[in-house]
Amino acid sequence: MSALYHIIIPFIVAMIATFWIHPKILKIAILKNLVDNPDARKLQREPTPVMGGIAVFFGIIVGICSSQIAFNTPNLFIVTAAITVMLYLGTLDDILGLSPRLRFLIEGIIILVVMLVSKDYMGNFFGLWGIGRIPDYLAYPLTMLATVGIINAINLIDGVNGLSSGYCIMASSVFAIMFCLTGNTVMTILAATAVGALIPFFLHNVFGNRTKMFIGDGGALLMGMLLSIFVMDLLDSDSACTYFAHNRMGLIPFALSVLSISVFDTLRVMSARIMQKRSPFYPDKTHLHHLFIELGFSHIGTTIAILTLNSIVIFAWFLAYIAGASIDVQFYLVLFLSILFTFIFYSFTKREIKRQSAYYRFLTTIGNLLRIEKRGIWAFIQRNIDKI
Question: For 236, which DSSP code?
């Protein structure tokens, strides 16, 4: 059996497993009243079950198990253990509400265990600023800081229907392509399985009426952990992607471009809260997705807009790479666009909303055009997704 089938089979199995388990998890969540209730900060209008992460987790685990039939993937054990603990941590946070300090402490311990067992960590800059391999006493804390940031950035973008799952589908797909090109079959299987498990949840989350669930902190932390593992494997000194690094591909700029909007929007929100002398974890409505909703975008329109901005960053990085730009230039380009699409775009647009300018009217027009959920194939999905 070819390597392609090793990837396609777990993808399909994960998708089918999530479709099968979703209504059962939904029923349990409703019976036990495990719901997210609306308030002044949240965008939903009625209580919504928050156990979607369990459905996604089930799909990923079944997909991983199916890969063992034809392909030996022992390295996925530590990954499975890590995402299981993250799921439990997030689910406890959904139900009981854990303090940020406790959550960060547990996240840090999990990441440390993953680094020690898998021997994967961000130990190489691959030529950025002329730096190659870095010593472990710097690599370990750097990896922990970066991965905790990624995990919580993914958690904080879970604000509108489809955004968190759609973002993770995009990011996992891009990582899957990179790993596939370098022959890293284990990571390719893991990324493809994540995509397969997320697609059914995304469809129910965006288009479902009776079957809508939120992914919750459990699902968000789970997916944040997976994306962190992809970055750790990508930037490990023994990474299979080293071949591309030797051909002037900036692996750090690439990883940053994939996660650019989530990471930099989180940095923007947290820095603004700190400047206002509030806790960086104080909940408010200042994320980028709140801005698009204020402009009149629907939930799916907001998701499309944010994914488009992130895709532009990835495409710009790729153009810089194939044009022969140095690794440093690739990094600065990604950094500039990330700041432009988060810090600058948010501040400028908020000002133009107050002025009711032509720019503001242009964005509201775009928002109306992106209300696609009741047209074409999307309307068909909306009419039928509750039946699946």
Answer: S
CB 222 within 8 A of CB 56: yes
Rounded CA gap, 213 and 204, in Å? 7
**Burial bucket for residue 70 (CB in 10 Å: 0-12, 13-18, 19+):** middle
Q: What is the pLDDT of residues 321-346, one digit of tens each?
A: 999 999 999 999 999 999 999 999 99
Q: Which domain holds residue 318?
A: 3-387
CB-based contact 194:179 (threshold 8 Å): no
Please spell the DSSP secondary structure of 54-113, one letter per residue: HHHHHHHHHHHHHHHHHS--TTHHHHHHHHHHHHHHHHHHHHH---HHHHHHHHHHHHHH
Q: What are phi and psi of 124, to 5 degrees?
A: -150, 135
DSSP, collapsed to helix, strand or coil, labels residue 307 as helix
* pTM greater than 0.85: yes
CA 65 to chain CA centroid, Å, is 23
- C-alpha to C-alpha distance for 28 and 18, rounded to whole angstroms: 15
> What pLDDT is recorded for position 14?
97
Number of domains making up the chain: 1
| Cα separation, 347 vs 306, whole angstroms | 16
